[in-house]
């Protein structure tokens, strides 16, 4: 795992963006994350597009997760977040966007996303955040390395941290995440310090799913100084 500690959030976002765009011309499939952490990276990416320095018109995208059930018109849905922060600001083509259909039945939601992934995956460059309990996507503590796209129950602290009453989600599994060719994890803020230290220095264990990334040969971590206090 390559770990880069940056002085602050802005520098972390810029450094992660450099890694994300490094080799992007050869990438076919991009894996996108939600959450507050990648917001500046997405703005910077949109800035590059606006200046004509970058195009994602030939890329296929997958998102990591969505609350379940959720409709695309729900203001707290990850679909809304992606529309507002990413899809409306870049030239990703609508037909190239793969996103969980969280308004379908559990079985159909899982099957349709798994089928899309089987057709177009794996991901070449995967962006990731980290939960305060070490979750990646919505793979909560206890998630196993062979877990695939599925519906999960959210941990109580995840619901509190995300200020949501929603208690389930559809998520990519650890397996699909680990099958990505390159992984870029961003961690910002002191509330992530414990999870990040454990992921980097603790035992590799399902008790903290982000620790599995240590078994990935091409994973990059970008942390700001507050998230890195316990490293
Ligand atoms: C959420 C999402 C994750 C995200 C993480 C961190 O629950 N499911 O994909 O990476 O928690 O979010 P944030 O960046 O807002 O701290």
Structure explained in plain terms:
With 231 residues, the protein is an alpha/beta fold. It has one domain: Rossmann fold (3-Layer(aba) Sandwich). Helices cover 29% and strands 18% of the residues. It is built from 7 helices and 10 strands. The chain has a 7-stranded parallel sheet with strand order 1-10-9-6-2-3-5. A 3-stranded antiparallel sheet has the order 4-8-7. Helix 7 links the parallel strand 9 and strand 10. Helix 1 packs across helix 2. The protein starts with a strand and ends in a 7-residue tail after the last strand. 2-amino-2-deoxy-6-O-phosphono-alpha-D-glucopyranose binds next to loops.
Provide the descriptors you would attach to this structure in a database record:
231 residues; alpha/beta; Rossmann fold; 10 strands; 18% strand; binds 2-amino-2-deoxy-6-O-phosphono-alpha-D-glucopyranose
């Amino acid at each position: 795992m390559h770990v880069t500690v940056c002085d602050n959030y802005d520098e972390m976002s810029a450094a992660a963006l450099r890694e994300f765009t490094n080799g992007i011309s050869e990438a076919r499939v991009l894996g996108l994350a939600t959450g507050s952490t990648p917001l500046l990276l997405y703005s910077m990416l949109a800035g590059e597009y606006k200046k004509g320095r970058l195009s994602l018109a030939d890329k296929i995208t997958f998102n990591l997760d969505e609350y379940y059930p959720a409709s695309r018109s729900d203001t707290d849905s990850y679909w809304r977040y992606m529309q507002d922060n990413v899809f409306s600001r870049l030239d990703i083509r609508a037909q190239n966007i793969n996103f969980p259909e969280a308004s379908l039945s559990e079985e159909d939601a899982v099957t349709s996303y798994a089928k899309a992934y089987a057709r177009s995956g794996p991901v070449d460059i995967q962006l990731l955040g980290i939960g305060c309990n070490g979750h990646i996507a919505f793979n909560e503590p206890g998630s196993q390395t062979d877990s695939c796209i599925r519906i999960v129950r959210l941990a109580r602290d995840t619901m509190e941290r995300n200020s949501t009453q929603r208690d389930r989600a559809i998520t990519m599994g650890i397996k699909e995440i680990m099958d990505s060719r390159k992984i870029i994890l961003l961690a910002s803020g002191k509330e992530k310090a414990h999870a990040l230290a454990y992921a980097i220095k603790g035992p590799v264990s399902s008790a903290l799913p982000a620790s599995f990334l240590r078994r990935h040969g091409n994973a990059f971590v970008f942390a700001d100084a507050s998230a890195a206090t316990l490293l």
